[in-house]
Amino acid sequence: MSRPAFLPSSTVSVNLHVYETTIVAARPYPAEDRVTVDVTGSGGTVTLYLGRPDIGRLRAVLEQAEHELTDQQNGVRAFSGPAA
């Protein structure tokens, strides 16, 4: 998904804690080749707007984070760098 020229590259900075009670739901928009992902808790909802390439980037970052967490818990030193 391309950013319209009239929009800034980022609009807000948000910290988000995900707990077992947090609802995470995706809604596809096939005609636009994108999805929205709502992360909802007692404090409100944060919505991610992701084009297809961004879905892959987010998945890669989360997979890398999970692998690094496991490696570090097992005493393996891991380099943390950009996944995508």
Automatic annotation (TrEMBL):
It comes from the Bacteria. This is Uncharacterized protein. It comes from Pseudonocardia hispaniensis.
